[in-house]
Design goal:
The chain is α/β, with parallel strands linked by helices. 44% of the residues lie in helices and 17% in strands. Bound molecules: D-glutamic acid.
């Protein structure tokens, strides 16, 4: 084996299909890497569950990916990143990344007046992880956090531009208008798919932070420091695992992301 390269896969997990938005960005950025994506479709959504349940699920998923020999782990799910990442890091020796820290760094780079909004699932907002991370990186910023529980099902139905979606986004985000935000973190895997509607409603003045883009920068850095990359001469592969309903996974995946090379999905038991 060439010690300069490591052909073991990178494990990426999410509560379901939403993490495919993050995976797509990674496949595009790292074409030589092998990826294993695990969607915990039997137990989605995580965003409505308690902190201890989300931590337990995240650890079970992590153990499965460790058993498959991954060299690094990415929690693509914001809810799992917010409530499971500390436990994951305590549990494994390989580098483990979530979307919160990269998302916060991107928001701090983007903000002009230090007024940053955060939207996510109820569990993510309740965890306070984004706010605490932002404040630890820059105590001078002001943050506002807002749960948007109805956005996830709208995206899963593929209703990106449906009039009902517009109405719900408008109604849900109405309280943010008075906050004078200059940056908004889309703190959920599904929300980047509503980016154009959110941008229309909030106005072009507010910069929208997409964690799928932010995590790519993070992995790029890690690939030059803590993770040994795969040989650039090889073509990466993708293995998809789900804990329930492979058909439904493929159906929703096809609806929300059209250009992913998913040929086969394997059903697993955690
Ligand atoms: N993947 C979740 C997140 O990013 C959204 C769906 C869920 O609630 O499980 O927070």
């Amino acid at each position: 084996m060439n010690k300069n390269f490591d052909s073991r896969p990178i494990g990426v997990f999410d509560s379901g299909v939403g993490g495919l938005t993050v995976l797509r960005a990674m496949l595009h950025a790292f074409p030589s890497e092998h990826f294993i994506y695990l969607g915990d479709t039997a137990r989605v959504p995580y965003g409505t569950k308690s902190a201890s349940t989300i931590e337990r699920y995240s650890l079970q998923v992590t153990q499965h990916l460790l058993n498959r020999g991954v060299k690094a782990l990415v929690a693509a799910c914001n809810t799992a990143s917010a409530l499971g990442l500390d436990a994951i890091r305590n549990h494994c020796l390989i580098p483990a990344m979530g979307v919160i820290e990269p998302g916060c760094r991107a928001a701090l780079r983007a903000t002009t007046h230090g007024r940053i909004g955060i939207i996510g699932t109820r569990a993510t907002v309740r965890s306070d992880a984004y706010r605490q991370t932002l404040i630890s990186m820059d105590p001078s910023v002001t943050t506002v956090s807002y749960p948007c529980p109805l956005f996830v099902p709208l995206v899963e139905e593929g209703w990106f531009h449906h009039p009902a979606t517009r109405l719900i986004v408008e109604e849900t985000l109405a309280p943010l208008h008075q906050e004078n935000l200059d940056t908004l973190i889309l703190g959920c895997t599904h929300f980047p798919l509503l980016k154009s509607v959110i941008a229309e409603i909030l106005g072009a003045r507010i910069r929208l932070i997409d964690s799928s883009e932010a995590i790519v920068d993070e992995i790029n850095q890690q690939l030059t420091t803590r993770i040994v990359p795969a040989s650039p001469d090889q073509k990466g592969t993708l293995t998809c695992l789900v804990t329930d309903a492979t058909e439904r996974f493929l159906e929703v995946a096809g609806r929300i992301i059209h250009d992913l090379p998913i040929e086969h999905v394997e059903m697993i038991d955690l």
